[in-house]
Write a structure and sequence with these properties.
It is a single chain. Strand 5 (118-122), helix 3 (128-145) and strand 6 form a beta-alpha-beta unit. This protein is an alpha+beta fold. It folds into 3 domains: 1-29; 31-106, no CATH class; 118-153, no CATH class. It contains 3 helices and 6 strands.
């Protein structure tokens, strides 16, 4: 065997090993998905680092019941496969495929009235006639301005 033949043989072996290593690393990519509802986020989160799914994720993990912990709704749901999740999936030949789920709860929203809101103040001890007059005034103001009129009882 000549020196050139030995070099070609060694080059082919190293090329196959390098190609196999690149293929292995390319197939171990992690995935990451975020779903945002548009609601402002709070600091409260539900974190499940090992949500159990099976057979390449075809059997999904159980449902996360966020309604009990997120009183104001959900701001964002994030699912990803961490390195450790991928390692476990690889060791089990993806029969067990855990994923990391993070649910971010929404912050409490506060309602506010427009700055140009119109109000009619009525006494709590007002008679039925005074209440009827106040409602008529409110209706007239609302028609004139094409905006709602608010009642304040004091």
């Amino acid at each position: 065997m000549t020196l050139i033949q030995k070099f070609k043989e060694l080059y082919m072996k190293k090329s196959i090993i390098a190609f196999a290593l690149v293929g292995v690393f390319a197939l171990t990519g992690c995935y990451h998905a975020k779903v945002s509802t548009g609601l402002p986020a709070s600091a409260e989160k539900i974190d499940i680092p090992f949500a159990h799914s099976f057979v390449f994720g075809l059997v999904p993990p159980s449902e996360v019941r966020a309604a009990t912990q997120c009183a104001n709704g959900v701001s964002m749901v994030e699912t990803k496969m961490s390195f450790v999740n991928g390692l476990v999936a690889g060791l089990t030949f993806s029969l067990y495929t855990p994923i990391h789920i993070t649910v971010t709860c929404a912050a409490a929203s506060s309602a506010s009235l427009p700055a140009d809101s119109q109000f009619i103040t009525v006494s709590e001890s007002a008679s039925e006639v005074e209440l009827a007059d106040a409602f008529n005034k409110a209706a007239e103001k609302s028609v004139e301005s094409s905006a709602p009129v608010y009642f304040v009882y004091n």
